[in-house]
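Format notes (please read before filing issues)

Several people have asked whether sequences and structure tokens are stored in separate files. They are not. Every record keeps both together, in the order shown below: the sequence lines, then the token lines. Line labels are part of the format and must not be stripped during preprocessing.
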Amino acid sequence: MKLRISLLSAIFLLSACTEGFVRFPVTESAQKNLSQDVTIIKLDATNIASFSSPSHVAGPTNLPGSRGWEYRVGVGDVLNIIVFDHPELTLPAGPQRSAEESGILVQADGNFFYPYIGQVQARGQSIAAIRDEVAKRLAEFIPDPQVDVRIAAFNSQSVVVSGQVEAPGKHALTTTPLTLVEAVNASGGLKETADARRVTVQRNGTLYKVDYEGFLASGLSKNNPVLRSGDIVTVPRRKAEEAFILGQVKKPAPVDLSVEPVTLTQALTRQGGLDEQRADARGVFVFRATGSRMTVFQLETSSPMGFLLGTQFVLEPRDVVYITRSPLQRWNDTISGLLPSVQGVAAVDAVGN
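Then the structure lines:
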């Protein structure tokens, strides 16, 4: 309600300052008389750079523990242990036996059995640590044993990728780090309906937001984290994000902003441009509601410079762009057709928040 009152106050004051007809730009004296919840900004070369980036510019993810990776053996992994010059201690793979079938399974208690030395603790250990332990204990039976340990099957650790990817599923972690981008690619890549700006990673019961697009478009390395065992990656469906083009354009309609940033000039061009017979190129307005505040941006497009400036003004979701009629049309008559749309958008914004 406060926003509506402020908006109505702005309209009536604008109407009064123009003596019933549209004058451009809005004068400073009129601006001073407006409610503190309404701000009018005339776009020009001195301030256009402030509006050339969308408000949702990618920021770095705060996902902890996402740098570096060393695989730790777990229950269900299959190990191959080779003691050089001692084939009796190595069960070789052959035509009828794969490396996994001839390997040693890490049991439910985290141990595995090996000849001469008995039970060896493997769960939570690195490959190097297991190799050193086996070699140390075999040295009691074999002089200077040369031991190599490899993982034949990675069964203990995995991540899950779900949502708007082509092939959702589980992916095993290996000795090679698995990044978010690699996990998504292993799932067939993003669907067209995916929202790459709002990917989430659930880790240890906490949900972290990751701007996947921020890495692809801006090279933010933190937005391509190394995944950990148990991580659940969810790619959400892209929600409709629109700006509304109204008034004296050839094709008044919503403009989709969810796929890529759209500038004011792009939006007007996609809707066929201004209606040359009826539009007043001096009266291109963008209404932007932010909470209880309303900002009205004013752009004059009567010269090519105006449209050039418009290429740097990035629209935001729920912006209402309105192009006025000729100066013979009274301002209050012009705006009356816009008010229901602006108020409706503001109401939806309030409910969404």
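For reference, the curators noted about this record: DSSP finds nine helices and 16 strands in the chain. The first strand starts at residue 38 and ends at 42.
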